[in-house]
Amino acid sequence: MIKFIKNFRKDENGAVTVDWVVLTAAVVGLGVAAFTAVETSTSGLTTEMTTALNSADASTTIGS
């Protein structure tokens, strides 16, 4: 039993798994943050474009 405990304590296979889980969580978090930033900017741009197109008058714009 003592030998099993010593071997278990020296085993580092689980530590690598924990490292990968932490790194993966960080990458996913950064991806979500980037998506949120892009989505917010895109939503604002869409609103501005809609306003600009609704206020444009084709007959006066083409004739100018």
Could you describe the 3D structure shown?
This protein is mostly helical. The chain has one domain. The protein is 91% helix and 0% strand. The protein is rod-shaped, with a radius of gyration of 28 Å.
Notable traits:
64 residues, mainly alpha, 3 helices, 91% helix, 0% strand
Describe the structure concisely.
The chain is mainly alpha-helical. The protein contains 3 helices and no strands. The model has no long low-confidence stretch (mean pLDDT 84).
Note the beta-strand portion.
under 5%
Number of strands: 0
Please work out how many helical segments DSSP would assign: 3
* Spatial shape: rod-shaped
Helix content: over 70%
The separation of the N and C termini measures 91 Å
Structural class call reads: mainly alpha
Q: What is the typical, i.e. mean, pLDDT? A: 84
The description of the largest β-sheet is: none
Poorly predicted segments: none
Number of domains: 1
Order of SSEs, N→C? HHH
Radius of gyration: 28 Å
